[in-house]
Amino acid sequence: MNTATTMQPLAALEDHDAFVARHLGPRADDCSAMLAALGYPGMEAFIDAVVPAALRRTQSFELPAARTEPEVLAALRAIAARNRTLRSFIGMGYANCHTPSVILRNVLENPGWYTSYTPYQPEISQGRLEALLNFQTMIGDLTGLPIANASMLDEPTAAAEAMTLAQRVSDSPHQRFFVAADSHPQTIAVVHTRAQALGIELVVGDPFRDLEQAQVFGVLLQYPGTTGAIHDYRALIAAARERGVIVAMAADLLALCLLTSPGELGAEIAVGSAQRFGVPLGFGGPHAGY
To answer: What global pTM score does this model have?
Structure first.
């Protein structure tokens, strides 16, 4: 390495606002060396050679002046401060929570997951695999089902995936999917959007009154309902499965610590969110779906 290009005056090293220099790639000398190796006199000539003219923008961007890192953080805090903190009532799939500091520090922020004494850092992969295994084991135990994944964005997205899974494995000729009316509104909205794109007709209603006559390939039940109501779905699920209807349940994980699991009730698919186990509300998701 050429030490002449790496030496910097002490004042430059003490410049705590040098955000661009710390976060944006190669310096001018580095660019010149790479361009020379490629045989181009400058960046403009290189771009002319590799980027088709039809794709290039001829006018310069009207961008504001660059900010220092403290200025950017202050601006972001000002934007975040415009959020309004409102009271959270029962239901709707979200509940405020407190993550104890000992859990936060020793589990979520534990540097043991990503120690950096080796350039390959296998600890990241090993730690992540262990965390995923722990998560999936918990999901399997609480839902009473034999297989669990660990890659869903949130509960509504997971519910939409449950609908498409049910469609793929069902032998039903019908292209309708039933959603309990007491499901969370955000879940109904996302499932409706996915169903519309796939040509599936969505039927929303009271499962105890409307499901028996509905010609559907699958059903989604909310457990507990969006208002907090808890129903015993055992007989309803048994009747639905006798007709070949695939049953999915959107279940609250913390509630499953006390309630009978979807697997024990006879459901074939369970979806939901792990937000109740310590993910802050944060004015929205995602919230670690399953």
So the answer is: 0.71
Residue 179 clears pLDDT 50, i.e. is over it: yes
Report whether 34 contacts 26 (CB < 8 A).
yes
Distance separating alpha carbons of residues 155 and 92, to the nearest angstrom? 11
Please state the length of the chain.
290
Residue 180 forms beta bridges with which residues? 205
User: Which tokens go with 140?
Assistant: 């399997």
DSSP string, 176-244: EEEEETTS-HHHHHHHHHHHHHHTPEEEEE-HHHHTTT---SEEEEEES-TTS-----HHHHHHHHHTT
Give the span between the Cα atoms of 122 and 113, in whole angstroms.
Answer: 9
CB 217 within 8 A of CB 174: yes
Tokens 């509960």 — which residue? 155
pLDDT (0 to 100) of residue 284: 63
Overall average pLDDT of the 35-52 stretch: 93
The token duo for 24 is: 């944006």
160-174 b/e with 16+ CB inside 10 Å = b? bbbbbbbbeebebeb
